[in-house]
Amino acid sequence: MNFYLDPSQGGHDTFYPGTAAYYRRKFDEQPVTVYNVRGRMSDFSLDIHGFQYLTHKTAVTNLENESITTVMYDEVADILKKATGATKVHTFSHLNRRDSRDAAERKVSTDPLLESDTSAIDLLTPARFVHIDQSRAGAVEVLRDEGSGGPLDADLVRDCMSGRTRWAIINVWRPLDRPSVTKDPLAVCDSRTVEDSDLVTVRATTPRRPETQYSDVTKGDGFDVLYMRHKSPQHQHHHHRQQQQQWYFLDAQSPDEVLLIKCFDSQPQSRHGGRSSSVRTPHTAFVDPRYSGSPEWDEKVRNSIEIRSLVFWENN
pLDDT digits over 165-219, tens only? Predict the structure, then answer.
């Protein structure tokens, strides 16, 4: 997996989706054990682990943008209300990742038109780096952008900012490959095993000109995300035996199996009696060594969709 690399070692503190520079970023690449949840999907929940698996068959058969923003957005609102007890869900963006990460990296390294880091490359590929989509400040930016002349009621935004209303950002992710995904599956880290000191703020600056598929991710010009430092098992054993970073994925996840990922929760994190109200969940696409390396694997492309929503528990 690809973890945060300090800028002094070649890493970065700002990145630009939709540009050649996005595919030239350097990371701290580390081997990680990822545990399969197949057969125990119900053991994990948003409020304890920060992620949850559910079974849901979408009514959308044609992934035209209109079908996504009408039918699929309504489905996501229903999924999140049932899973969380929220009173309101506002979906603000989605990404249909359907391009090859490997092909994009080859193109950036060989195409003379992409020599400049600022060159636009309008591809949506799996995100092979450990991240959380928004930091606390980044989540607030999204909330304010959606309420500043946007679709969210100004009173609701004020209630969120004052602490009267609990709110969160939750992603709903599913593969679209049938029968199941084998390339670039999505892994999630148990939020209870992530220390605040593991996380580093990095700025995502979204493109406006020329228009790209990333332009609608936020109504602003960008937001703060979180990367995660890798901690070796020896380091974790010595310092935080109870806080080893634990990774999970659903092997051969099908389009009818959705993953809910909590990126932010305004409710303070608490750990009482071993239970936790999780605030943030690192996640990443990763290369499964069981399938990688063959020419057939190199040519495969993962097709998936992630839908991002603001979730509200009004007067809570």
Answer: 999 999 999 999 888 999 999 999 999 999 999 999 999 998 665 555 555 665 6
Collapsed DSSP state (helix, strand, coil) of residue 68: helix
Instruction: Output DSSP code: residue 179.
Output: S
CA 45 to chain centroid: 16
The predicted pLDDT at position 272 comes to 41
The average confidence (pLDDT) of the chain is: 90
Give the pair of three-digit tokens for residue 138. 């980044």
- Which of 166, 149, 131, 121 minimizes the C-alpha distance to 268? 166
What pLDDT score does 279 carry? 78
The amino acid present at 25, given as its one-letter code, is R
Which amino acid appears at position 278 of this protein? S
Picking from 40, 49, 59, 212, the residue whose alpha carbon sits closest to that of residue 125 is 212
Residue 144's domain comprises 2-313
pLDDT digits (tens, 9 = 90+) for 255-306: 999 999 999 999 865 554 444 455 799 999 999 999 888 777 777 899 999 9
Q: How many domains does the chain have?
A: 1
Instruction: Say how far apart CA 77 and CA 89 lie, in whole Å.
Output: 5
Q: What is the DSSP letter of 300?
A: -
State how far the Cα of 58 lies from the Cα of 54, in Å rounded to an integer: 12
Secondary structure class of 315 (helix, strand, coil): coil
Tokens of 102: 């490997």
pTM for this predicted structure: 0.92
Whole-Å CA distances, 256 to 36, 55, 77, 96: 17, 6, 16, 16
SS3 at position 72: helix
Characterize the bridge pairing of strands 199-205 and 14-15: parallel
Contact 263, 139 (CB under 8 A): yes
